[in-house]
Write a structure and sequence with these properties.
The protein contains eight helices and ten strands. Strand 1 and strand 2 form a beta hairpin. It is α/β, with parallel strands linked by helices. It is globular and about 50 Å long. It has one domain: Rossmann fold (3-Layer(aba) Sandwich). Bound molecules: adenosine-5'-triphosphate.
Length: about 240
């Protein structure tokens, strides 16, 4: 369960670019909600605050006011424990793949679970096989396709056995085939998933949809009304340049 209690994110921004007068900018206005559904989608315009909301869940962003709790753990006071439970997948897998080969990358994740060093490579091979990457274990990560990299990033995160997964536009960079592979994989997970997406079909499959606009959650409900609300917002919005 993910709980937002008046969680707010503000930053100091230089008003004049020169840094002489700072102003407080609100990236996320107070959000209060209790997310218990297995699949929660977050949709909204570019720059509306979706990633900021998602980052609050594992403490990548901290609330400036209010609180965020995951399974009862406070992201500010119990950050490391929260991060052990919350996996995070970015739209750019290169942001999280740090080792030279696929098998080494998953093995690194297994270190976090205290799997003995002697067992990590074999366990990592098993995990890669489960994700259809068994034949790519020793291939340099940079030689994998974008879809294979995203699958590897997911494999690495899921290897840490998180109880909640936050996916920030995980299929944005993928072609339709790989989108389907990653979507099916995410849809089939047991874990609670908070999915930030511009893919309205994926949002429509969620149990609950939050719509973010100009740093505020402006709609929270079932997918049908959520997607309709987003479409209305987009129809009414001025062309962005
Ligand atoms: N650390 C920061 N300092 C200042 N501004 C920030 C910071 N992080 C995000 N922003 C700004 O906050 C706003 C919301 O950003 P956020 O990444 O949450 O939007 P988003 O809805 O995920 O956008 P997109 O769909 O384009 O990924 C943007 O205008 C962004 O530039």
């Amino acid at each position: 369960m993910i709980e937002f209690d008046a969680a707010t994110v503000t930053v100091y921004a230089a008003r004049d670019g020169g840094g002489t007068t700072d102003e407080v900018r609100t990236l996320l206005h107070p959000v209060t909600c209790r997310l218990t559904e297995r699949r929660v989608a977050v949709i909204g315009a570019n720059g509306s605050g979706k990633s900021t909301l998602a980052r609050l869940v594992n403490g990548l962003a901290l609330p400036s006011a209010g609180s965020v709790r995951v399974e009862g753990l406070d992201t500010v006071r119990q950050g490391p424990a929260v991060r052990r439970r919350v996996g995070f997948v970015f739209s750019d897998p290169d942001a999280q793949l740090v080792m030279p080969t696929a098998v080494e990358d998953v093995a690194l994740s297994l270190r976090r679970l205290d799997v003995p060093a002697s067992e990590r490579a074999a366990r990592a091979q098993e995990i890669l096989a489960r994700f259809g990457l068994g034949g790519r274990a020793e291939v340099p990560v940079h030689a994998l396709s974008g879809g294979q990299k995203q699958l590897l990033a997911l494999a690495g995160v899921l290897a840490t056995e998180p109880s909640v997964l936050v996916c920030d536009e995980p299929t944005t960079r993928l072609d339709l085939r790989w989108q389907r592979v990653v979507d099916d994989l995410i849809d089939g997970l047991e874990q609670q998933v908070l999915l930030v997406t511009h893919d309205l079909e994926a949002a429509a499959r969620a149990d609950r949809v939050l719509v973010v606009d100009a740093g505020a959650v402006v709609h929270d409900g079932d997918p049908e009304t959520g997607v309709a609300c987003y479409r209305e917002l987009m129809a009414a919005a001025p062309v962005p340049w």
